[in-house]
Design a protein that fits this description.
Hypothetical protein af1432; mainly alpha
Protein backbone atom coordinates (compact mmCIF):
# COMPACT_ATOMS: atom_id res chain seq x y z
CA UNK A 1 0.00 0.00 0.00
CA UNK A 2 2.75 2.47 0.89
CA UNK A 3 4.44 2.23 -2.51
CA UNK A 4 1.17 2.82 -4.38
CA UNK A 5 0.32 5.85 -2.25
CA UNK A 6 3.83 7.25 -2.75
CA UNK A 7 3.70 6.68 -6.52
CA UNK A 8 0.23 8.18 -6.79
CA UNK A 9 1.48 11.19 -4.85
CA UNK A 10 4.19 11.57 -7.51
CA UNK A 11 1.52 11.35 -10.22
CA UNK A 12 -0.61 13.97 -8.48
CA UNK A 13 2.41 16.26 -8.18
CA UNK A 14 3.10 15.75 -11.90
CA UNK A 15 -0.49 16.74 -12.73
CA UNK A 16 -0.08 20.00 -10.79
CA UNK A 17 3.34 20.59 -12.36
CA UNK A 18 2.04 20.03 -15.91
CA UNK A 19 -0.94 22.31 -15.29
CA UNK A 20 1.41 25.11 -14.22
CA UNK A 21 3.97 24.46 -16.98
CA UNK A 22 1.33 24.51 -19.76
CA UNK A 23 -0.93 27.15 -18.18
CA UNK A 24 -0.85 29.69 -21.04
CA UNK A 25 -0.79 27.20 -23.91
CA UNK A 26 -3.73 26.24 -26.11
CA UNK A 27 -4.28 23.32 -28.50
CA UNK A 28 -4.29 23.97 -32.24
CA UNK A 29 -8.00 24.87 -32.10
CA UNK A 30 -6.99 28.02 -30.20
CA UNK A 31 -9.57 27.37 -27.47
CA UNK A 32 -8.76 24.15 -25.62
CA UNK A 33 -6.19 24.43 -22.80
CA UNK A 34 -3.12 22.47 -23.87
CA UNK A 35 -2.87 20.66 -20.53
CA UNK A 36 -6.05 18.76 -21.38
CA UNK A 37 -3.97 16.90 -23.98
CA UNK A 38 -1.44 15.55 -21.48
CA UNK A 39 -4.26 14.55 -19.14
CA UNK A 40 -6.03 12.73 -21.99
CA UNK A 41 -2.78 10.94 -22.90
CA UNK A 42 -2.55 9.61 -19.33
CA UNK A 43 -6.23 8.66 -19.42
CA UNK A 44 -5.74 6.85 -22.75
CA UNK A 45 -2.87 4.89 -21.25
CA UNK A 46 -5.01 3.92 -18.28
CA UNK A 47 -8.48 3.49 -19.74
CA UNK A 48 -7.78 2.38 -23.32
CA UNK A 49 -4.41 0.61 -23.09
CA UNK A 50 -4.80 -0.71 -19.52
CA UNK A 51 -1.57 0.78 -18.14
CA UNK A 52 -1.63 1.08 -14.34
CA UNK A 53 2.02 1.85 -13.55
CA UNK A 54 2.10 5.26 -11.78
CA UNK A 55 5.62 5.98 -13.13
CA UNK A 56 4.44 5.56 -16.72
CA UNK A 57 1.35 7.67 -16.05
CA UNK A 58 3.54 10.33 -14.42
CA UNK A 59 5.81 10.47 -17.49
CA UNK A 60 2.71 10.68 -19.70
CA UNK A 61 1.45 13.74 -17.83
CA UNK A 62 4.89 15.33 -18.22
CA UNK A 63 5.60 14.12 -21.78
CA UNK A 64 5.52 17.56 -23.42
CA UNK A 65 7.15 19.63 -20.67
CA UNK A 66 10.74 19.52 -21.97
CA UNK A 67 9.72 20.09 -25.59
CA UNK A 68 7.00 22.72 -25.10
CA UNK A 69 7.72 24.60 -21.86
CA UNK A 70 10.68 26.13 -20.04
CA UNK A 71 11.07 22.92 -17.97
CA UNK A 72 14.32 21.06 -18.38
CA UNK A 73 15.64 17.57 -17.82
CA UNK A 74 17.40 18.49 -14.56
CA UNK A 75 14.25 20.03 -13.09
CA UNK A 76 12.20 16.93 -13.93
CA UNK A 77 14.93 14.60 -12.62
CA UNK A 78 15.04 16.48 -9.32
CA UNK A 79 11.26 16.55 -8.90
CA UNK A 80 10.22 13.20 -10.41
CA UNK A 81 13.35 11.06 -10.68
CA UNK A 82 15.91 10.37 -13.39
CA UNK A 83 13.95 7.53 -15.00
CA UNK A 84 10.89 9.72 -15.53
CA UNK A 85 13.06 12.57 -16.84
CA UNK A 86 14.81 10.17 -19.28
CA UNK A 87 11.47 8.93 -20.57
CA UNK A 88 10.22 12.51 -21.06
CA UNK A 89 13.48 13.42 -22.81
CA UNK A 90 13.02 10.49 -25.21
CA UNK A 91 9.57 11.86 -26.03
CA UNK A 92 11.00 15.30 -26.79
CA UNK A 93 12.18 16.57 -30.16
CA UNK A 94 15.36 18.61 -30.48
CA UNK A 95 13.98 21.92 -31.71
CA UNK A 96 17.51 23.19 -32.46
CA UNK A 97 17.65 20.90 -35.51
CA UNK A 98 16.08 21.74 -38.88
CA UNK A 99 12.69 20.03 -39.23
CA UNK A 100 13.75 17.18 -41.53
CA UNK A 101 16.75 16.27 -39.32
CA UNK A 102 14.68 16.75 -36.16
CA UNK A 103 12.00 14.32 -37.36
CA UNK A 104 14.55 11.71 -38.46
CA UNK A 105 16.35 11.94 -35.11
CA UNK A 106 13.04 11.72 -33.25
CA UNK A 107 12.03 8.58 -35.15
CA UNK A 108 15.38 6.98 -34.29
CA UNK A 109 14.81 7.88 -30.62
CA UNK A 110 11.36 6.29 -30.69
CA UNK A 111 12.58 3.15 -32.46
CA UNK A 112 15.15 2.45 -29.75
CA UNK A 113 13.06 3.65 -26.79
CA UNK A 114 11.95 1.35 -23.98
CA UNK A 115 8.38 0.02 -23.97
CA UNK A 116 7.00 2.62 -21.49
CA UNK A 117 8.11 5.46 -23.78
CA UNK A 118 6.55 3.75 -26.79
CA UNK A 119 3.28 3.27 -24.89
CA UNK A 120 3.19 6.96 -24.00
CA UNK A 121 3.86 7.95 -27.60
CA UNK A 122 1.09 5.64 -28.79
CA UNK A 123 -1.32 7.31 -26.35
CA UNK A 124 -0.09 10.70 -27.59
CA UNK A 125 -0.76 9.67 -31.19
CA UNK A 126 -4.18 8.35 -30.21
CA UNK A 127 -5.14 11.70 -28.71
CA UNK A 128 -3.68 13.72 -31.58
CA UNK A 129 -5.56 11.61 -34.14
CA UNK A 130 -8.83 12.04 -32.24
CA UNK A 131 -8.22 15.81 -32.17
CA UNK A 132 -7.42 15.82 -35.90
CA UNK A 133 -10.82 14.30 -36.66
CA UNK A 134 -12.38 17.73 -36.07
CA UNK A 135 -9.55 19.72 -37.70
CA UNK A 136 -9.34 21.10 -41.20
CA UNK A 137 -8.15 18.92 -44.10
CA UNK A 138 -4.55 20.19 -43.95
CA UNK A 139 -4.18 19.43 -40.23
CA UNK A 140 -5.86 16.02 -40.66
CA UNK A 141 -3.39 15.07 -43.38
CA UNK A 142 -0.39 16.28 -41.36
CA UNK A 143 -1.56 14.38 -38.25
CA UNK A 144 -2.08 11.16 -40.19
CA UNK A 145 1.30 11.45 -41.94
CA UNK A 146 3.06 12.08 -38.62
CA UNK A 147 1.21 9.18 -37.02
CA UNK A 148 2.19 6.77 -39.80
CA UNK A 149 5.84 7.83 -39.60
CA UNK A 150 5.90 7.47 -35.80
CA UNK A 151 4.01 4.17 -35.90
CA UNK A 152 6.69 2.75 -38.18
CA UNK A 153 9.37 3.76 -35.66
CA UNK A 154 7.35 2.47 -32.69
CA UNK A 155 6.78 -0.90 -34.35
CA UNK A 156 10.55 -1.49 -34.56
CA UNK A 157 11.24 -4.51 -32.32
CA UNK A 158 7.91 -4.16 -30.51
CA UNK A 159 7.52 -5.43 -26.97
CA UNK A 160 4.48 -7.67 -26.39
CA UNK A 161 2.73 -4.94 -24.34
CA UNK A 162 2.67 -2.78 -27.49
CA UNK A 163 0.64 -5.18 -29.66
CA UNK A 164 -2.85 -4.02 -28.70
CA UNK A 165 -2.03 -0.27 -28.46
CA UNK A 166 -0.30 -0.41 -31.86
CA UNK A 167 -3.39 -2.02 -33.38
CA UNK A 168 -5.70 0.58 -31.81
CA UNK A 169 -3.65 3.53 -33.08
CA UNK A 170 -3.16 1.98 -36.53
CA UNK A 171 -6.94 1.78 -36.91
CA UNK A 172 -7.21 5.50 -36.13
CA UNK A 173 -4.38 6.45 -38.51
Amino acid sequence: MGKTVKNNTLLFRAISYAARAHRYQLRKDGVTPYVSHVFRVAMTLSQVFGVTDPEVLTAAVLHDTIEDTTSGFDDLAERFGKKTARWVALLSKNKCLPEKEREAAYCRQLASAPAPVKLIKLADLHDNLLDAATAGPGQKKKSRNNARRYLKALAHKPHSVLKQPLAIVRRLA
